TrEMBL record:
<dbReference type="InterPro" id="IPR001789">
    <property type="entry name" value="Sig_transdc_resp-reg_receiver"/>
</dbReference>
<keyword id="KW-0902">Two-component regulatory system</keyword>
<keyword id="KW-0963">Cytoplasm</keyword>
<keyword id="KW-0804">Transcription</keyword>
<keyword id="KW-0597">Phosphoprotein</keyword>
<dbReference type="InterPro" id="IPR011006">
    <property type="entry name" value="CheY-like_superfamily"/>
</dbReference>
<dbReference type="GO" id="GO:0032993">
    <property type="term" value="C:protein-DNA complex"/>
</dbReference>
<feature type="domain" description="Response regulatory">
    <location>
        <begin position="5"/>
        <end position="118"/>
    </location>
</feature>
<dbReference type="GO" id="GO:0042802">
    <property type="term" value="F:identical protein binding"/>
</dbReference>
<dbReference type="InterPro" id="IPR039420">
    <property type="entry name" value="WalR-like"/>
</dbReference>
<feature type="modified residue" description="4-aspartylphosphate">
    <location>
        <position position="54"/>
    </location>
</feature>
<feature type="domain" description="OmpR/PhoB-type">
    <location>
        <begin position="131"/>
        <end position="230"/>
    </location>
</feature>
<keyword id="KW-0805">Transcription regulation</keyword>
<dbReference type="Pfam" id="PF00072">
    <property type="entry name" value="Response_reg"/>
</dbReference>
<dbReference type="GO" id="GO:0005829">
    <property type="term" value="C:cytosol"/>
</dbReference>
<dbReference type="InterPro" id="IPR036388">
    <property type="entry name" value="WH-like_DNA-bd_sf"/>
</dbReference>
<dbReference type="GO" id="GO:0000987">
    <property type="term" value="F:cis-regulatory region sequence-specific DNA binding"/>
</dbReference>
Amino acid sequence: MNKSTILVVEDDPSISKLISITLETHDYLYRTAKSGNEAILEILSNKPDIIILDLGLPDMDGIDIIKKVRSWSSIPIIVVSARGEDRDKIEALDAGADDYLTKPFSVDELLARLRVSLRRIQKDDELKLKEKSIFINGRLKVDYLSHSVLIEEQEIHVTPIEYKLLCLLAKNSGRVLTYNFILKEVWGIHDNDASALRVFMATLRKKIEEKPAKPQIIQTHIGVGYRMVRIEERKE
């Protein structure tokens, strides 16, 4: 079954039933709303993946619903309306609708528009995943998915311990991490002796810093620990 949930906002029972049967036949999950207020409640409560929206609702205009939804969400909105004038389409699209179908409509065309919206959702999710999987800080890039480290887009070799240190600092960039915290997270030990940590940090800096003697990326807090400095902080 398609895991995407479609909210059908339509006050005409025959059209609502037509769309619902079409969605059910093609294994979409769906919910329905007959008014604007009901639609807003559904959107806030159940967070559908796509909205199919009629503009002519009994309690409020569909344009107002689009504007309300766009104030907090980028969920795809497909308008299905009897309003066929260009100015109506432009108003809906300018308000934030993603697509516009005029009644009467072909169910095949509606399904095609749904597939387009679903592809957009998938691409957006993939982009978000990619953004979360890559850390960039000035000349440094850490790709968590491929476990690779790049300096100015050139991959460099780091040892497993160096990689763990770098990832820990990157995921906590801007925060001072104490010696004990780093030792526990990387080696799984509580130890006041940070001499081994200092050795690994020195070798790591030689690989990622432009001038290891004057580090710009990993800052030492003497007697406390280390901090990954966001490069933009240096520019302020």
